[in-house]
């Protein structure tokens, strides 16, 4: 799979994932915070399966 997330998209996903994941330890301490693993993982890997299905690509095109 080729990367389909740009730098800003990846950074925002990592920040959002960490913020959601923190809900497991602080705040309401609910397991719903584990949903933060999804944006965290896609942000770290750089590939979003939903983007692939929809044909969206936020990473810049690299010239050959």
Descriptive overview:
This protein is mainly α and 64 residues long. It has one domain (7-54). Helix content is 48%, strand content 0%. The chain has 3 helices and no strands. It has helices at 7-22, 37-45, 49-54. The longest helix has 16 residues, at 7-22. It is elongated, with a radius of gyration of 14 Å. The two termini are 18 Å apart. The mean pLDDT is 92.
What is the succession of H and E elements? Answer: HHH
* Alpha plus pi helix count: 3
What's the count of strands?
Answer: 0
Q: Determine Rg (CA atoms, Å).
A: 14 Å
Mean pLDDT across every amino acid position = 92
Which percent band covers the strand fraction? Answer: under 5%
Helical content stands at: 40-55%
Distance between the termini: 18 Å
Biggest pleated-sheet summary: none
When the domains are counted, the total is 1
Secondary-structure class: mainly alpha
Enumerate the spans where pLDDT stays under 50 for 5 or more consecutive residues.
none
Q: What is the overall shape? A: elongated
In short:
This protein has helices at 7-22, 37-45, 49-54. With 64 residues, it is mostly helical.
Feature tags:
3 helices; 48% helix; 64 residues; mainly alpha
């Amino acid at each position: 799979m080729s990367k389909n997330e740009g730098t800003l998209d990846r950074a925002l996903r990592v920040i959002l994932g960490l913020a959601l994941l923190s809900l497991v330890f602080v705040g309401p301490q609910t397991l719903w915070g584990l949903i933060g693993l999804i944006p965290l993982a896609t942000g770290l890997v750089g590939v979003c399966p939903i983007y692939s299905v929809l044909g969206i690509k936020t990473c810049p095109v690299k010239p050959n």
